[in-house]
Amino acid sequence: MMARDRLVARGIVGEGHAFRTDDGLRKFDVGDQIVFLKNHSALGVKNGMIGKVVEAAPGRIVAAIGEGDQRRHVTVDQQLYRDVDHGYATTIHKAQGATVDRVKVLASLSLDRHLTYVAMTRHREDMALYYGRRSFGFHGGLGKVLSRRNAKETTLDYERGTLYRQALRFAENRGLNVVRVARTLLRDRVDWTIRQKQKLADLAQRLRGVGERLGLLDLRQTQSPKEAAAMGAGATL
Length: 237
Prior knowledge:
The chain is α+β, with helices and mostly antiparallel strands. The chain has helices at residues 2-9, 92-95, 113-119, 133-137, 142-147, 165-172, 178-213, 225-233, and strands spanning 17-21, 24-28, 33-36, 50-57, 60-65, 72-77, 84-86, 100-106, 123-130. The protein has eight helices and nine strands. A five-stranded antiparallel β-sheet has the order 6-5-4-3-7, with no helix packed on it. The chain has a two-stranded antiparallel sheet with strand order 1-2. The protein has a two-stranded parallel ribbon with strand order 8-9.
């Protein structure tokens, strides 16, 4: 919202008209950049698609989407479609396929070479990259982080969210089936638990070996109660 507030203060866009989205009340005006958050075949929009508002009225906007010969206008009514928001800041995942005049990228440690390529090829005119020198320095520097392979997000990254709401919303915003995602969460949890048990078993084995070498464990075979009873039965004093 800070980006839009500055545009309003500079007179580039107006205060706009109220539009009720699934994330709350927003104001859109001519010139606003918006992002569609869910696929909709009737409108012909896809999750992550960027548009520019060309008409605005209370509860209704008309946005230009697409590039070149594919550019067209879509009318969005809040009674029919509410999965829309201001598009001045978005994730790299949602920006795939989008092209805008100027891009500012805020780099994070979750980036890899694929996401870096996507982020740095969305602009027509110019692009600026911002990053935390100290945090990236702890991980080998900016170049090393941005050039690595497959720094994938997993559902376990969201396991601490209450009832996995963050993970489910992450999936829903990408048009994924929530039931399948819930199953994936459970499968990931089971796999993670199995891996942890194996790690503990390996650790116990290593500790046993260390204990044996240090003489902390008695390596002599102890007799079971049955063996002791059998031997004692034939003994006389």
